[in-house]
Amino acid sequence: MTGLVGFSTAQLAAGMAFRRLSRTTAVALVTAGALGFVVAMARISCPDGAARCSLDDSGQRDVLDTVHGLGVAGYELFFLVGVVAAAIALLRLPDLDRNRMRALALFMLALASAVTVLNMPEANPGAMQRLWLAINCAAVLTITVTGARQSAQSTSGVVP
Length: 160
Known about the structure:
The protein is mainly α and 160 residues long. The chain has 5 helices and no strands. Helix 3 (63-91) packs antiparallel against helix 4 (96-118).
């Protein structure tokens, strides 16, 4: 849960770093980060530990299960909107060759994130959850670094 809180904080930073390039990206990533906090705080029934999160054998859901599930769905939706908006924003920048590669990487990471979460198995999804978070971390890192570089170049007078 500490890792999820840290990752949510990183998404807030990514949104803020990219705000000059795309307001849509900033709002979407900040919203995803906030929903990430909800996901981390609303633990679901994990009778076999976090790596084997699933509903208990009775299949009954409580309020935290529902909040967690809705938080994950909302997180992924806003995360994907933010990543795709960042990729589109990069295609509008002057240095098209360099930014085209970054945009392509972001489009591919968004696709990989969506495919991974849609193919997550019901039983023992721990490894897939970790893969999904690793993919999302790569996207957040790309967005944060690119946004910070573009902001630094625009404030220093250097053309990006």
